[in-house]
Amino acid sequence: MSEKFTPLTPALYRYLVEHASPRDPVLDALAEETARLGDVSVMQIAPEQGALMTLLVRALGVRSAIEVGTFTGYSAIAIARGLPADGRLIACDVSEEWTAIARAYFARAGVADRIDLRIGPAIETLRALPAGTVFDFGFVDADKIGYPVYYEEIVSRLRPDGLLLLDNVLWMGQVNDPRDQSENTRAIREVNDRAASDPRVETVMISVADGLTIIRKRTAAEG
User: Fold this and answer.
1) What does the pLDDT average to over 181-208?
2) Residue 37: CATH number of its domain
3) How would you label 82-94 residue by residue, b for 16+ Cβ within 10 Å and e otherwise?
């Protein structure tokens, strides 16, 4: 397999980000406020990732979405921006502190009525959903140990041709380092391997930010 990729420098990365549609001022303000939290701000998704998610949600005509890991709300707003007025996103997180910031920005962004924020362990939220709940779109960016379980719970509820996105799938390059046998790294490897071999879906892993896997649920016609 031939290698075809362009290594990113900081200058080239800035060029990439600048050559997208105009930035959302609410998201820019949220990014600035999140940065003031210190080291924990690394959990916020990259701006080009948010733009990609909004584009995918709009293009897919998503009406129902689920997010595991909301933090201060950047990804939730990116998803909600792509929803129609009657679309809904269930956003799962365990932190009242961080999601207090998210709630304020949901209102500033004008999408609060599209987001159902649920505080508590995401696995409990997912398993408490009514039978027959189906999603058009899912996004997972939470505790890495939980990724394999979140994957299974969401894929089983994803409609045919629906999408699930998994964040941090390159895990700062540690997924490819056999010396790293930490619990988080092993969980990321597990979900990466499972998605790549799951006959229910087709996947592509792309090098956006810390790696993003886009997963499509196959239709019945595909077998």
Assistant:
1) 96
2) 3.40.50.150
3) bbeeebbbbbbbe
